Fold this sequence. Notes:
Helices cover 34% and strands 15% of the residues. The chain is α+β, with helices and mostly antiparallel strands. The chain has one domain (3-383): DD-peptidase/beta-lactamase superfamily (Beta-lactamase, 3-Layer(aba) Sandwich), CATH 3.40.710. The strands form 3 sheets. Strands 2-1-12-11-10-9-8-7 form an 8-stranded antiparallel β-sheet, with helices on both faces. A two-stranded antiparallel sheet has the order 3-6. The chain has a two-stranded antiparallel ribbon with strand order 4-5.
Amino acid sequence: MSRIRIAGVIALAATAISGVDARAGDPEDHSGQALEAAMARLVQMRSGPPGVAAVVQRGGRREYHAAGVRNLRTRQRWRAKDHMRIASVSKAFSGAVALSLVERGKLRLSDTIADLLPELPTAWAPVTLGQALHHTSGLPDYTQTKAFRDSLTENPRKHLTRRDVIDFVRSKPLDFTPGSRYEYSNTDNFVMAMMARAVRGRSYVTLLRSKVFRPLRLRRTTLPGGFRLPRPLAHGYVIDPPDPAADISEAISASGAWASGGLQSNPAELNRFVRGYVGRKLFGRATQRRQFRFVKGSSDPPGPGRNSAGLGIFRYRTRCGTVYGHTGGFPGYTQFTAATQDGHRSVTVSVNEQLAPDSPRRAIRAAFKALRKVETLAVCAALAQRG
Length: 387
């Protein structure tokens, strides 16, 4: 892929680091058939993704739905165990690590950057762990800087260290007084993971394994340090007609996203994660009550229904009911995963193209609107009564 094409992808996606059955439009139809019809329409759109995968689970009954393909060259269908980048859903994992440490008294939501990370800019000193979890910290978002975008354009596969990322915003003051308002920032999760490392003296990868992967039996979920993805994989694409589709599955290093968006998983394990995360498998009810203090704010990209922001989690109030989870967007991929508060009903929707509501391209905005319809129908299917 040419450097010019990569630059175009980064310009559109840098913040991510980040024949149809008419019944699909019936608000009373919560069936898997309606969901599959909406999925089919999505992949048939002019700038729609090559493929879409959905996991819908009600108690012990899990259904897997797929439309389109995971690989445009081989025309293979997307399977539940195919690897993919989970983008900003990685933030829910860093939230899980932090809140599990809060549960055990190793971290406090009131711990500040001054307390745990004195090497960071003095201007950031008053920011607390809770504010970073809530996206009310005021920390400047490194993905919005020209320096970060220039770095990706020059060498998308370059390995970026934690210091490299912080250096993109080290000289910048806070965007606003901590706690005064909500503003989504990818820097929040870098700081959150660095706080967890500071109190435990272990690498973030080690903390992920001990606090999240092992308890939830996530054997195929990892945090890559480079641009490679495990096999088999669902290839991620840029769809920009009339140009041919560009496979960017391994075009960009995950190191620049790290705790903010660098993890990879598969639909089956992502579904298992959200059930455990929301269903209190990693921390108890008291900690969840603190997590579920919602403020006005949307995940990025927005999830279905009306969005509100909690600590490392978002609430999605849809016409069929309320679920809790996270979304994500990374060049080549868009993700949504959520569950009911008891973790018994869950949904995961993945597409192998980055879609966003604020894209400069009308066709992408239209495809994102269709994706949100798929997400809503998936939630409705998960919350539907059996029989």
